[in-house]
Predict the 3D structure of the following.
Amino acid sequence: MTPSSKGKQAYQIAFKLDQDYGECSQATLKALQSVFEMEDEDIFRAIGALAGGGGGRCDGSCGAYAAAMFFMGMFAGRNYADLGADPDDPAAHKQRDQLFALTDKLYRKFIDAYGSINCADIHRKLYGRAYYLRDREEIEKFLANGGHSAQGGPSVCGNAAQWAAEIIEEFLKV
């Protein structure tokens, strides 16, 4: 798949934000918010908790992956009205099923590129080890090992934003 213009733009924004400021989840979300013109500072602030595998612990899902999935939900997720639907009615699951189909595409991209969606696993693939990003010494080692270099976190954020943008654009064309 050739990168779309929104995909390319999302890649560039996410890459630069993560390279300059860190916070993989916020860099990825801000890029997607920008290219789809859906900026919301409250959501941006809240998603920061997902950075570094969840609060910088590196033992959960990649923050860029989580942010990209979250943003996909803005297009295909369930609404409040869906909560009262009959759970046995297949129509009640349409929105959820659409969202899961989109996130499956993102999941496959991450597995193909990194072998995992887990922050620690992605760290090991990129840097040879995982980092506990709540410890100043660990952060310094992470940065010295290329944490915010072109081959590190910024490229993961860029890829997550690009892939999500392309998946969303494809969904909107249907």
Notes: The two ends are 17 Å apart (CA to CA). The chain has a mean pLDDT of 93. Residues 94-114 form the longest helix (21 residues). The helical segments are 5-21, 24-35, 41-47, 63-76, 94-114, 119-127, 136-144, 153-173.
